[in-house]
Amino acid sequence: MIKRALISVSNKAGLQDFANGLYKLGIELISTGGTAKFLQDLNIPVTNVADITNFPEIMNGRVKTIHPKIAGGILGKRDQHEKEAKEHEIPWLDLVVCNLYPFAETIAKPNVDLDTALENIDIGGPTMIRAAAKNFHYVGVIVDPNDYSAVLQELQKNRKLDLDLCKKLATKAFAHTAQYDTVIAEYLTDDMFPEQLTLAFNKISELRYGENPHQKACFYQKIDRLSNSKQLQGKQLSFNNIFDTDAAIACVKEFSEPACVVVKHANPCGVCEHEDINQAFINAWQADAKSAFGGIVALNRTCSAEIAEQLAKVFIEVLIAPDYSPEALEILQKKPNLRVLELNTLTKSAEKYQFKYVDGGMLLQTIDDNKITNNDLKFVTKIKPSQQKIADLLFAWKVVKHVKSNAIVIADNKTTLGIGHGQVSRVDAVNVAIYKGRKYPQQAVLASDAFFPFRDSIDQLETTSINAIIQPGGSIRDEEVIAACDEQQIAMVFTGIRCFNH
Question: What is the four-CA torsion angle of 271, 294, 266, 258, rounded to 10 degrees?
């Protein structure tokens, strides 16, 4: 039987109706300072925790629920500790409703200092939650406002909570406090790779299926990241949509000038940077329109009516942009299944690490956020590239970082012409890129994500118009490769760093 409930919440969403429902059932409500005032202002009768403990809240509210009368009221076994509870005047607390100070939301805000972060670490809350969860045979615990309705319906029906429901709520409570501590530990650690690593994610939605229809899937988001994306229209994002969209966003974030990236199966198939976003889209799409069918389009500027008109004529899965003109949205609504995402921030990712799971474990590495500039280049051939060619080389390098290895990108005028990806032979990657870019006769540049181990890849360029190459260098046969470029009058620069993307 639920006779007494302790309510102490930071997130007060849904609390008014829930607390009022408990009161109407004759359940005594006990609460702490801020929550007590919230309920009192709503004319819902409530007893302050200090009246139970006979001890005031002290130290600016840091100490209020840490007291034997609170802990004992939650942890006591009703069939074993009744005598002790009466002896020490400890009231049983049958329901604990608690969610914690918003630590994750606080540290996600820009320029948050350490003192502010520390003040948003809850102490009494996790103690009460864990105590109630441990004692779920006698006590119900709620950490999620989404559970208010189910709990209230159960109480209205039976005046008590089913044991299976209490166990389910307790499981959720332990996960809640575990995640909370995980985010705090990650924030405070100075170690790049700590001895213990726990990941904290919130379930966003179940997906229809995974990569294939026979696989089950779900989407989770890191709980210390505030999403700045909004789906404006279209079907639910699928597993592959989310994965490919992430690849498109990562690539388009490389560019500060107006740019468009078209992605298919997590690989760019068309990329362009241009002073006019409309032209950037046209160039990126035409770079490989055949592959773009059913792909993802990402823009880093407002989607115009002109772009929307073009996309209305073709099939794509997802469109991403920081904003949309009213006319563009009206046009796109004619394709109701098209997933249209508004992503307000298309700048450098806040993520520091990249996770890759393997059977029985996980690989962890820092994000490849290395930026190559003109000053980083080593000019190794007799012919030096012009400033315009250097700009194209640096553009191609930004793209090749996001192409699956082995990766080759051919580009001109900051537009990709041919992309060879995922080949187990670098020569094959070169040949795929050449084949893809065969319809473009103009002189072009080539980027390779790793060094050329032999001159055979350069030899494949003899019948092409490629006249500049950017690559890491570092092969024991670099001199042989340089000589091959000199023979074909191709300029080549080394970055001194590779950019594998497996």
Answer: 30
Q: How many CB atoms lie within 10 A of CB 16?
A: 14
Tell me the CATH number for domain 4-188.
Answer: 3.40.50.1380
pLDDT one-digit tens code per residue, 418-469:
999 999 999 999 999 999 988 776 789 999 999 999 999 999 999 899 999 9
Mean pLDDT of the chain: 91
Q: Give yes or no: 134 in active site.
A: yes
Task: Write phi, then psi, for 468 (nearest 5 degrees).
Answer: -155, 145
Phi-psi region of 206 (alpha: psi -120 to 50; beta: other; left: phi over 0): beta
Note the CATH number of domain 203-343: 3.40.140.20
Query: pLDDT band at 350, cuts 50/70/90?
Result: low
Active site residue 265: yes
Q: Is the dihedral of CA 148, 154, 156, 159 positive or negative?
A: negative
Q: Which of 12, 134, 160, 222 is catalytic?
A: 134
Determine the pLDDT at residue 300.
95
Distance of CA 220 to the CA centre of its chain: 8
For residue 152, give Cα distances in angstroms to 14, 122, 385, 449. Answer: 12, 26, 72, 59
Identify the band that residue 226 occupies on the pLDDT scale cut at 50, 70 and 90: very low
Q: Do domains 4-188 and 203-343 have the same CATH topology?
A: no
Per-domain residue ranges of the chain: 4-188, 203-343, 370-494
Give the separation between CA 269 and CA 249, rounded to whole angstroms.
Answer: 14
- Residues of the chain above pLDDT 70, percent: 97
